[in-house]
Design a protein that fits this description.
The chain starts with 10 loop residues before the first helix and ends with a strand. The N terminus is likely disordered. The strands form five sheets. Strands 6, 10, 11, 12, 13, 14, 15 and 16 form an eight-stranded antiparallel beta sheet that branches. Strands 7-8-9-17 form a four-stranded antiparallel beta sheet. The protein is globular, with a radius of gyration of 25 Å. The protein is built from 16 helices and 19 strands.
């Protein structure tokens, strides 16, 4: 199942500070000015490597080797021109639905698959990747690390929750309240963005790309953001890279002074570039499970669970949850272990707690499946919380379903938690056959065809505004014969 916990935590900062770190000055390779930094270059690489493992485990990298190799090749071409060469650069496509790109200390650069459908040329992609290299080169991640350290000490970022399942509860409370421990996805300052924009334009030009590509991408992203009807569950590019009204114009103006290198693009023309993106998953991947209203269904693990109606839902690699932010109340599900005996988990907890658990556990059944339940209270930063903790064994996997609410409201929400637990069941035959996946596909227009007619003929999932934004055309455009456009198609999804 491999649902994720919180994206990136700050606990490692406390560890670093508790053992002592090297604080010193280094010359910024982009600005040429001295920086007060918390760690050495070697320490930066170690921090980046540690966080990169979390990204891979908790967020996930693309399973498309062709796409991964393409982004890596493009990134390495740009990295050879970076003003900073003391870190080994790596480039990955991360399984993030929202359009985003980010960099970790030590040269780890990521582009989300949610960003790729928006990009309309290799020049634009080069501008984005070059921008993230700029953040690494200018040591912006390290600067944020240094600035956050005093806050980490005062705030006590570790020990947010104490209790039997402290890690799970801590992650869940952070998720539903919108709290994130990530400093690497926190917004950059305007000056940092300007520096990264400048480096991105320079690197793209040096790599043989049109330096105005970054400006075109920023404009396309502005259009896409205006089409978003709901706040994203994870940060988008403009959340971590603040947009300003003049940013598109400034990057375009700066591009006029950039000298373009002689190298040719990896994709020789626009059509070849679009074919690199053919098949990219758009939206949530059903391998992580899907929501049908408040009903969660998992095609690979063959189960369904109904969460309370009207609650905000979220799916990630290690956890699926639903909650009411106003009430600070949530329910979440994750894999607790392997086996067919749900009592195996509370027995292990009983050993760790010195015999304080088993006498409070009650057994139950859900649709003939064995279950175990433990109700207790836990102290959190948000006050004392009532916890309804359940384990259900199904097909060799023990699932953990947790209900969490403020202690004073627990009696009100306890019946709701029980309804959620009691809804756990295998998928029906119809449900198993009805999973779909949305992919980016390519289609050719006919002479004089309107965009609306094109969308109808190709069974495109996107609206006319979304197709226009993704392809850099207007909604009232008259299409040319053979014009290749990006569309989205809903296809049947069959679990392997």
């Amino acid at each position: 199942m491999n649902f994720k916990k919180s994206f990136i935590d700050l606990g490692f900062l406390v560890c670093l500070l508790s053992v002592g770190v090297t604080v010193g000055c280094a010359v910024n390779p982009v600005t040429g000015r001295p920086d007060l930094v918390l760690t050495t270059t070697e320490g930066e690489r170690e921090i980046g490597a540690k966080e990169a493992k979390k990204v891979e485990q908790q967020v996930g990298l693309t399973d498309d080797p062709r796409l991964a190799a393409y982004v890596e090749s493009l990134g390495q071409r740009l990295a050879t021109h970076s003003p900073r060469q003391d870190v080994p650069y790596q480039f990955h496509v991360v399984e993030m639905v929202e359009p985003n790109a980010f960099a970790l200390p030590g040269g780890f650069v990521y582009v989300s698959r949610g960003l790729l459908p928006i990009v309309n040329s290799e020049d634009e992609l080069a501008g984005v990747v070059g921008h993230e290299i700029g953040h690494v080169a200018a040591r912006h991640s390290v600067q944020r690390l240094s600035a956050a350290a005093p806050f980490a000490i005062v705030g006590g970022v570790t020990g947010a929750v104490t209790g039997i399942v402290s890690d799970n509860l801590s992650d869940a409370v952070m998720g539903i309240t919108g709290f994130t421990g990530s400093i690497f996805l926190a917004p950059y300052s305007r000056s940092q963005e300007r520096e990264a924009d400048t480096v991105g334009v320079d690197l793209a030009a040096a790599g043989g790309y049109d330096p105005v590509g970054l400006s075109r991408f920023l404009h396309a992203l502005e259009v896409q953001e205006s089409l978003r009807k709901e706040k994203p569950q994870s940060p988008s590019f403009f959340d971590s890279h603040p947009s300003t009204p003049e940013r598109v114009k400034d990057t375009a103006n700066y591009a006029k002074s950039a000298t373009r290198g002689p190298a040719r693009p990896i994709a020789p023309d626009h059509e070849a570039f679009l074919k690199k993106l053919d098949g990219v998953v758009v939206g949530t991947h059903p391998a992580e499970g899907v929501f049908n209203d408040n009903l969660f269904l998992h095609p690979h693990l063959d189960f369904a669970l109904r969460f309370p109606a009207g609650w905000e839902t979220q799916i990630s690699r290690q956890m699926v949850l639903a909650g009411d932010k106003e009430q600070l109340t949530l329910a979440f599900l994750q894999v607790a272990g392997e086996g067919n005996d749900p009592m195996a988990i509370p027995r292990e907890l009983d050993k760790k707690s010195g015999g304080k658990v088993l006498d409070k556990v009650e057994r139950f059944q859900v649709g003939g499946l064995p279950g175990a339940r433990l109700v207790f209270q836990a102290k959190t930063k948000h006050g004392v919380m009532g916890v309804d903790l359940n384990w259900i064994a199904y097909q060799g996997v023990i699932y953990q379903i947790v209900g969490l609410s403020p202690e004073k409201k627990f009696q009100t929400f306890e019946p709701i938690f029980r309804q959620t637990v009691n809804s756990f069941r295998p998928l029906t035959r119809t449900e198993r056959s009805n999973f779909t996946i949305t992919r980016l596909r390519l289609a050719r227009a006919r002479q004089g065809e309107s965009l609306q007619s094109f969308i109808s003929r190709t069974d495109c999932v996107w609206t006319d505004a979304e197709v226009a934004a993704a392809n850099g055309i207007s909604t009232n455009a008259t299409l040319k014969d053979g014009q290749l456009l990006k569309i989205t198609k809903r296809e049947r999804y069959m679990p392997r």
